Amino acid sequence: MGNTESVLLIGGGGREHAIAQALTADARCRLYACAENRNPGIAALSADFNSISATSVDAIVEYATTDPVDADLAIIGPESALEAGVADALDAAGVYTFGPTAETARIETDKAFQRQFMQSESIPGCPDFAVFEEIEAACAYIDETEHDLAVKPAGLTGGKGVRVIGDQVTESEAKSYLRESEYEQIVLEERLVGEEFTVQAFVANGELRITPAIQDHKRAYEGDTGPNTGGMGSYSDTTQTLPFMSAEEYTDAVAILEATVEALPAYKGVLYGQFMLTSDGPRVIEFNARFGDPEAMNTLPILETSLLDIMRAAQHDESLPALSFSNQATVCKYAVPEGYPTDPHSGTKITVDEESAESVRVYYASVDSREDGLYTTTSRAFAVVGIADSIATAESQAETALSTVADGLRVRHDVGTPSLLQRRIEHMDAIREE
Ligand code: AMP
Ligand code: GLY
Questions:
Q1: What predicted TM-score, i.e. pTM, was given to this entire model?
Q2: What sequence ranges are listed for the domain ATP-grasp (predicted)?
Q3: E strands along 212-308, which residues?
Q4: Of 56, 113, 213, 330, whose CB has the highest number of CB atoms within 10 Å?
């Protein structure tokens, strides 16, 4: 295959479409992909797309190591694959995988481990917390504790398992939630108040390379109301910080990621810090062991360094390249089926006007390809990302591209708007003054 290099991508969402685009922007990359759902965007960029679930470890290894794939490099998108041990198995089969082992990925997949790890390693930014195996003991702790708590199942819930007392639920609703669900382990922790943001870093060989801060919008509806989702949209600014954040606050968040990597010298892949900017500076809401979805769609389109070069350096124990970004603002908005996430209606025809949407990127997530076009499933359908010299311009570009979106799909039109940004700044100013 001449000078091409086979790389296997695992996962089929919007995040993975962005990874596929970043990898194939490097002409040396010959991409292969596997995911249960056929993502038409990834398939179009790949030499082959195999419908293997991201957690089918043996089938993935078999695909990666046989003709025509024969990859020696892989990258994992979803946390479910990390938890299943896909990185362990591919590494063992000689396919260097940019993603942590199942044990190291516990920093995301086990929230009790994550908090205990932060505490034992003295990583700054950890809220007060307690871990429970008994539901009634957890309910008693809720009764005894004076301040509001966040209630978190320890395992993976696709971002939808957390209930914050005083924000989403009352104390008694939180207790009913615990009694009705059958979680084996619960983390109860101090409710953090402020503005949330994400910082992702490329990590390997004890080193990290940081990327600009991003703000995701987890709540389903405009004005940050409704249930939590996997993420409805996100934005980043022309600098590394966000409008409500100082350079020092960003540096403090980076210091937390640095301390984490120091405590996990074998970590490889993307380390994602989800922070709450509080009156005491950034505190950790969670770590993820992968790119965020949607955040990958903000980061990768403005990354000028080759993702293939970053992964090759990691593979060969070389220092990671310094990252270069185009210093543009990005606004990403997901189109989701009506009723998402609680009662999503599938089967809506999707119209994406890619022609008139020239200044934006379109990333497919979960779509059903039929003979006469693409239809929604019950998950997020596709995202558009505006990229411009200001957040406001990127936001209007994203909206223009979404103007042809059909009935039956919903978008959070407030993501990245000047009025929402102003509210964030005022909210943070009020918190700092308290
Ligand atoms: P997670 O699944 O840990 O990302 O939590 C989902 C969402 O719950 C976060 O994005 C926050 O909005 C909220 N959350 C989680 N932990 C806390 C906390 N300690 N204080 C306040 N909100 C939280
Ligand atoms: N955007 C949140 C996540 O990827 O978990």
A1: 0.96
A2: 115-316
A3: 215-216, 219-221, 225-228, 233-236, 269-278, 281-288
A4: 330
Q: Is residue 121 part of a domain?
A: no
For residues 220 and 298, state if they share a domain. yes
- The answer to which of 71-85, 148-162, 171-185 has the lowest mean pLDDT is 148-162
Residue 112 lies in a domain: no
Ligand 2, atom nearest to 288 Cα? 5
Q: How far is CA 40 from the centre of its chain?
A: 20
How far is residue 270 from each of residues 35, 57, 203, 251, 275, measured CA to CA in Å? 19, 20, 6, 18, 16
Look at residue 1 in the predicted model and tell me its pLDDT. Answer: 46
Ligand nearest to the backbone CA of 200:
2
Residue list, ligand 1 pocket, CB within 6 Å: 127, 150, 152, 159, 162, 164, 189-192, 196, 218, 228, 274, 285-286
Cα-to-centroid distance, 292 and ligand 2 (Å): 4
Strand partners, 5: 29
**Quick one: 240 and 353 in the same domain?**
yes
CA distance 202 to 42: 22
**Residue-number span of the structural domain to which 82 is assigned:** 5-98
DSSP run (H or E) holding 163: strand 163-164
Say whether both 184 and 203 belong to one domain. Answer: no
Tell whether 280 and 367 lie within a shared domain: yes
Please work out whether the CB of residue 288 comes within 6 Å of at least one atom of ligand 2: yes
In the numeric block, which tokens belong to residue 58? 């043996």
pLDDT digits (tens, 9 = 90+) for 240-265: 999 999 999 999 999 999 999 999 99
Q: Is residue 265 part of a domain?
A: yes
For ligand 1, the distance from its centroid to the CA atom of residue 253, given in whole angstroms, is 16
Determine the distance separating the centroid of ligand 2 and the alpha carbon of 3, expressed in angstroms: 35
**What CATH number should be reported for the domain holding residue 164?**
3.30.1490.20
CATH label of the domain that carries residue 408:
3.30.470.20
- Grouping H, G, I as helix, E, B as strand and the rest as coil, residue 387 is strand
**Residues 137, 184 within the same domain:** yes
User: Based on the domain organization, do 180 and 203 belong to the same domain?
Assistant: no
Render pLDDT for 207-253 as a digit per residue (tens, 0 to 9). Answer: 999 999 999 999 999 999 999 899 999 999 999 999 999 999 999 99
